[in-house]
Amino acid sequence: MSSSSAFQQSLRQLKPEKRRSALAYRERSQLQFLSDLKPPFPKLLLDTTVYIDALQGRLPDSTEVALRTGSLWHSSVTEAELAALAGLLDPAHPGRASAIAKVAASIDRRPSHRILTPGRDTWREAGILSGLLARLQGYGKDEQRKALNDALIFLTAAKHGCVVLTRNLSEFDLLMQLDARGQAVFY
Fold first, then answer.
1. What CATH number should be reported for the domain holding residue 54?
2. Is residue 22 part of a domain?
3. Where in the sequence is the domain holding 151, given as residue range(s)?
4. What is the rounded distance in angstroms from the CA atom of residue 138 to the CA atom of residue 144?
5. Label partner for 115 (CA 20 to 30 A): which of 9, 18, 70, 166?
């Protein structure tokens, strides 16, 4: 399939021209939370929030069972988001070396056979989806970049039969409203 026809297929799938008004966030009762699930858990693709909360010791107890017993998958997008800290952190800060070492250890623990990397089609659809989200919600430049990363994670999970595990209710609620192929479970 040519790249032009693949692009047209993505447009037909996502239908950005049909969306004209901002999305409303759903009530928490309409969203699925990990604490409500029982094993066996679905295949989980971990969002960056999971790694950050784990590194900071802030993961809720309800996630521990799923992280110990579930089928966990990782994204090259979350790896890049975590790696960005090495450049963002102030070199003069006394805790910088320790923070970078913790991030590196977290990345190194990922089994290579469980890392999912978005392909060209996923990048294209994530571009459309994040652009649609930015237009509808009136996002600024920083929010647009974050939306692209979240759309990449969301669509990668959908493509590989995973559910995104995240605490980012707002972004992933909206992504699920725009594209029913993906799922997220929250903590």
1. 3.40.50.1010
2. no
3. 30-186
4. 9
5. 9
Helix (H) / strand (E) element for 42: namely none
d(CA 33, CA 54): 18
Residue 52 corresponds to which tokens in the numbers above? 């950050």
67-100 tens-digit pLDDT: 999 999 999 999 999 999 999 999 999 999 999 9
Omega of the bond prior to 40 within 30 degrees of 0, cis? yes
Residue 163 has what DSSP assignment? E
Measure the CA dihedral 67/123/127/146, to 10°: 40
The b-or-e profile of 20-45 (16+ CB within 10 A means b, else e) is eeeeeeeeeeebeebeebeeebbebb
Q: How many domains, in total, are found in the chain?
A: 1
Whether 50 is covered by a domain: the verdict is yes
